[in-house]
Structures
1.
Amino acid sequence: MSPLRYIPKRHTISPSADSTYEQGQTVQLQALPDSNYVFTGWSGSVESTDNPLSITVDKTYGLTAHFKLKTYDLIVDTQGKGTRLSKERPLNALQAL
């Protein structure tokens, strides 16, 4: 069985990267993640977790928006004489016999 893979749709940065601005203008950049991701921060000319990020155009900026896949806890319990398997306690093939 192959592992589950998720190929995200494109994340969005607003306004778009090809926009132009006048010197001294304040710009609000907002990172809009795909529904299965969360925004984690900006890197490059500015290091920040602000979203939206407010910058004043006084030079050329190079920014990268970072996203990570959402994660959720899974709580499993057993009733009766069962065994639960986890990454910490994988099933040994000989134990299954």
2.
Amino acid sequence: MLAETTKDDRFKQAIAAGIDPYIGKREMAKLRNCSERTLTRWVKERRIPAPELIGVRKVGWRASLANLSFAELERIAKEQAGEGEVPAPTPVTPKSKRAALGSSPLRQLAATA
């Protein structure tokens, strides 16, 4: 009977083999002692590097980034962004024409009549 290997065992084996494995958002949040939402906010603020796309719906960070200081993570994040390049803010668009107009079409007709 084969012994079951846990995720931690596979992680340790990968590091021992010289492979820098990926860790997901949940693991990174646990190692950084913060919430997953805080990680997302830090990425937007460029305080930590953006996660890499691992699969179609999975992103993660290299495990080696988990133990770096915040100053080092911020430097890497700024390098990813292109040395101080600040993105333009994304405009907030209403979900529908009605939301853009601010009132119902019937009220608008009554106001123009």
3.
Amino acid sequence: MTQDSLALGELGKERGMAAAARGVGLVWMAEARTVIRKVAREQREFTSDHVWAAGLARPNEPRALGAALTELARAGFIEKTGKYVKTTQKTRHAAPIAVWRCKER
């Protein structure tokens, strides 16, 4: 993999997350951040499955949750642990998902 292809991949990821966030709107993104903060403070480690289980309404674009998680990571509130577990979401077919932790308590 060349540096150029890696940069293009990162750019595509950024654009995709931005599009997903725009697709769900500001109100849903604010609610997602609120639920993520609550889950992060209550659990030592958590995944997107925990956020959904906490009652976050499912938008028309569920990938927008990744944008909300990334936003809070960039703000320094959460971070990835480097661990992955299989999701319990049926539609995701046991795909690996990141495990996160709160950096603030």
4.
Amino acid sequence: MKKIMFLATGALLFAGFSVAQAMSNELIIGANVQVGNTQVAPGTYYVKEKGDCAIFTNVRTGRTFRVTANKAVPLDQKIQTPLVLVRHNQIERLGLGGYATELQFTAPNPS
């Protein structure tokens, strides 16, 4: 009976860990991308939202930087699954799990 209880407890802890991981908004970038006016190198990043900004933290280096969105679109309800729209190596839209806002970025004008 104790073994069954231990296994059940382990399954609950594992399920809780999975939910926590899903809400961390971990973003894996495989090639250089542009987010607004910022060039983002390949790597794994934790991303969170603060107002009309996306805050990226490189998991390996701990380096953090902030990118201001051109537009922050309020949504009716919180996003459950993160959404990233990339076109031509440019992140255009970013919707983070746990937030009720979609951030929209515009590519910089070529000089």
